[in-house]
């Protein structure tokens, strides 16, 4: 019911953000400003955050349109390191393709690809020390792949089979690998942000030299945990690197619902008085350089940095949604910052360290490798086909020692199972 | 062997002593919370601890319960044993997601890869004329959650022994302190002055380290007529009523709500044949409902 006006003020109206393009539209990204390489040169790692505000609104780039690196952010990596980077990103892509297909074949319930944003998990991890602690969100399987975590363990988790180290308790892809510096993934978004700060504070308080790095998406910066984490990190000068993978989409909600119509995500750093960098997330060398800058800064007691990787989610959010239902087709093909794998490949070719033929044969090699691992994992079972951890493990690890009430509930379950399915079931 | 030195303590002093003992004993113990550092806490539970153990062991935090508990989870994942204070239980809710979805689930969801040995201390309960934001008893929100232990002491002696056991426990513990009885056992009679703890049992507290195991209730009065299950401030209210009315109740102070000491409850209810539950929390879906169900379920009781 309309409120009767008491004066001649123009009425208020509520703004509901709307993405520029919807299904049926042809995306036009000509309004995205891509600054020149080195438009904002690399500052000293000890710089005061107040002196680098421009970096929170700019875009750190290293690779030019000619695929040659230039400028002060160039990390000057040797060709072996660059080839490893490309290999890891391609392995991640091969793994994603295979597991996506496995979901479509009914072998698991869920999968999430990182297509288009591979650099933000692979190049970042390469710029960290191997014992630095990573607090990932759900799309950073590239961290595990970069740190040589066994692919078969990842697949066992995805299949929730009898080889699953997490005993079928987690949604597929929500890995945990302490030995590899990879924190248990939570489905509750951005809860890992204050946790990464706590880990970093603990490291600093114990005069350790390890730092922590944490990832979240553009959409989940809206969670309260994000702001608590940045406050704590600023207050205690914690050696933590905050990363926002701004891939433009949070399931079907564009980044405008997290505030991108007004400012950048990197600019969130300014209000907290910490360093903020906005980076071309599809330029693997720029991503590496930004992480290296922030890691050096943190390790030298320079405190936290917030890095925004400006990128694009090339696939759906997960196997459970159809992006064709909410965004314009071909957005990824038209994305002005290109594809991170293609750009790194072209860079290696441009410097004479790689060929198209080598690239094609590497893709085949990795596809064969992943297929072989998949076969091995499927020996342990696929989701919903019997080969899983015994049912009673469902009650284990709630506490260090199982209390009486869980023992009782577990016994009741086993009793009912026996009544319903008989001894044959037990034998399975 | 000589008896360990004891001292008369009220509940705040006993809690302070437990924290002091654990800070000295275990270098991984860290205390944080709003106003807990230099000032020593709004209820003085951490008084003197920063001066004694240093600023990196006992420190103030931003006013963010989500941050305090979330940071605690991260510290625990690193290998520390954080003991955060939430200034009032009524303000724990911004940290609820970190407690319920993170601290409580971490061991389970990672299959023992990561654990969370964190004890969240928080004053709770009514009786201090604090209105609805300083009086709540939210314990059943926590007993409902798999992976959290919930502890509520009723005397200075128990508070220290239970708090030490909670800190030494390798799982997250919510430790609710009945603030109405910090200084003396409130009996429910507003017209009577509260006597200091020094005049009551449970105030002779050993100065060193001792534990009261989690999951063990205390029979605070033996009786034949009825079993009364209670905890926190209500232990003293029930004791006063029983003394005044002169009926032969067996009073059980649960001390730990989860895991519950069902053996002690079962033995008592079998003996008396009657059971009554007294708590100060919301009755609907309260912990009393769980107790009522538990005493009626085992075939051995019915």
What does this structure look like?
The complex is a heterodimer of chains A (428) and B (302). With 428 residues, chain A is of the alpha/beta class. Chain A folds into two domains: 49-378, 3-Layer(aba) Sandwich (Rossmann fold), CATH 3.40.50.970; 391-427, no CATH class. Chain A has 13 helices and seven strands. The termini of chain A are far apart. Chain B is α/β, with parallel strands linked by helices and 302 residues long. The longest helix of chain B has 15 residues, at 11-25. The radius of gyration of chain B is 19 Å and the shape is globular. Chains A and B meet through helix 6 and helix 7 of A and helix 3, helix 4 and helix 5 of B.
CATH fold group of the largest domain in chain A: Rossmann fold
Assembly category: heterodimer
> How much is the average pLDDT of chain B?
96
- Reported CATH architecture of the largest domain in chain A: 3-Layer(aba) Sandwich
- What is the CATH class designation of the largest domain in chain B? Alpha Beta
Annotation field: number of helices of chain B: 10
User: In the CATH hierarchy, what is the superfamily of the largest domain in chain A?
Assistant: Thiamin diphosphate (ThDP)-binding fold, Pyr/PP domains
Helix content of chain A: 25-40%
């Amino acid at each position: 019911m309309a409120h009767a006006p008491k004066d001649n003020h123009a009425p208020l109206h509520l703004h509901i953000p709307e993405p520029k393009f919807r299904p049926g539209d042809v995306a036009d990204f000509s309004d995205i400003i891509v600054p020149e390489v080195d438009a904002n040169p690399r500052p000293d790692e000890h710089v005061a955050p107040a002196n680098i505000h421009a970096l929170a609104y700019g875009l750190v780039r290293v690779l030019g349109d000619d695929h040659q690196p230039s400028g002060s952010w160039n990390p000057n990596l040797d060709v072996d390191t660059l080839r490893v980077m490309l290999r890891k990103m391609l392995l991640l892509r091969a793994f994603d393709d295979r597991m996506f297909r496995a979901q479509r074949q009914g072998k698991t319930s869920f999968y999430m690809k990182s297509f288009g944003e591979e650099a933000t998990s692979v190049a970042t991890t390469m710029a960290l020390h191997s014992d630095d602690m990573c607090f990932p969100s759900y799309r950073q399987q590239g961290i595990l792949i970069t740190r040589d975590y066994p692919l078969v363990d990842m697949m066992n988790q995805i299949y929730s089979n009898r080889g699953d180290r997490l005993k079928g308790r987690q949604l597929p892809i929500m890995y945990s690998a302490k030995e590899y510096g990879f924190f248990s993934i939570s489905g509750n978004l951005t809860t890992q942000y204050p946790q990464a700060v706590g880990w970093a504070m603990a490291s600093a308080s114990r005069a350790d030299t390890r730092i922590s790095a944490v990832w979240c998406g553009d959409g989940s910066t809206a969670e309260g945990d994000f702001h608590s984490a940045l406050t704590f990190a600023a207050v205690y000068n914690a050696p933590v690197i905050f990363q926002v993978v701004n891939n433009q989409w949070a399931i079907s909600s564009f980044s405008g619902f997290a505030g991108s119509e007004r400012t950048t995500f990197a600019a969130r750093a300014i209000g907290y008085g910490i360093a903020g960098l906005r980076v071309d997330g599809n330029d693997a060398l720029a991503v590496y350089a930004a992480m290296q800058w922030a890691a050096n800064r943190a390790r030298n007691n320079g405190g936290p940095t917030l890095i925004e990787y400006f990128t694009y989610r090339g696939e759906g959010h997960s196997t459970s949604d159809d992006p064709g239902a909410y965004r314009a087709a071909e957005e990824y093909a038209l994305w002005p910052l290109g594809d991170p794998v293609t750009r790194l490949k072209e860079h290696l070719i441009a410097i004479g360290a790689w060929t198209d033929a080598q690239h094609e044969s590497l893709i085949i090699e990795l596809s064969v490798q992943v297929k072989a691992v998949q076969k091995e994992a499927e020996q342990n079972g696929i989701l919903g086909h019997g080969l899983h951890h015994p049912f009673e493990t469902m009650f284990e690890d709630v506490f260090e020692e199982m209390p009486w009430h869980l023992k009782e509930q577990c016994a009741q379950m086993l009793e009912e199972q026996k009544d319903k399915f008989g001894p044959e079931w037990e034998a399975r | 062997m000589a008896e360990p030195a004891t001292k008369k303590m009220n509940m705040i002093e006993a809690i302070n002593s437990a924290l002091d003992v654990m800070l000295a004993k275990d270098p991984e113990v860290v205390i944080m919370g709003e106003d807990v550092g230099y000032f020593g806490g709004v209820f003085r539970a951490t008084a003197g601890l920063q001066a004694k153990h240093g600023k990196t062991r006992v420190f103030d935090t931003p006013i963010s319960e989500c941050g305090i508990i979330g940071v605690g989870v991260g510290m625990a994942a690193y290998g520390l044993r954080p003991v955060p204070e939430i200034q009032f239980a009524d303000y724990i809710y911004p940290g609820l997601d970190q407690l319920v979805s993170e601290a409580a689930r971490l061991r389970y969801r990672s299959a023992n890869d990561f654990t969370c040995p964190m004890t969240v201390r928080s004053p709770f309960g009514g009786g201090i004329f604090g209105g609805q934001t300083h009086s709540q008893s939210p314990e059943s929100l926590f007993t409902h959650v798999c992976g959290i232990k919930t502890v509520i002491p009723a005397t200075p002696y128990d508070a220290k022994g239970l708090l030490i056991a909670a800190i030494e426990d390798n799982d997250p513990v919510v430790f609710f302190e009945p603030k109405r009885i910090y200084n003396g056992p409130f009996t429910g009679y507003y017209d009577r002055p509260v006597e200091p703890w020094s005049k009551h049992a449970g105030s002779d507290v050993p100065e060193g380290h001792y534990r009261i195991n989690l999951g063990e209730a205390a029979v605070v009065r033996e009786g034949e007529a009825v079993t009364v299950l209670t905890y926190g401030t209500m232990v003293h209210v029930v004791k006063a009523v029983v003394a005044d009315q002169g009926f032969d109740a067996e009073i059980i102070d649960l001390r730990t709500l989860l895991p519950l000491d069902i053996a002690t409850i079962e033995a008592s209810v079998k003996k008396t044949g009657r059971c009554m539950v007294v708590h100060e929390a919301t009755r609907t879906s309260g912990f009393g409902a769980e107790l009522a169900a538990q005493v009626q379920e085992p075939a051995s009781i019915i």
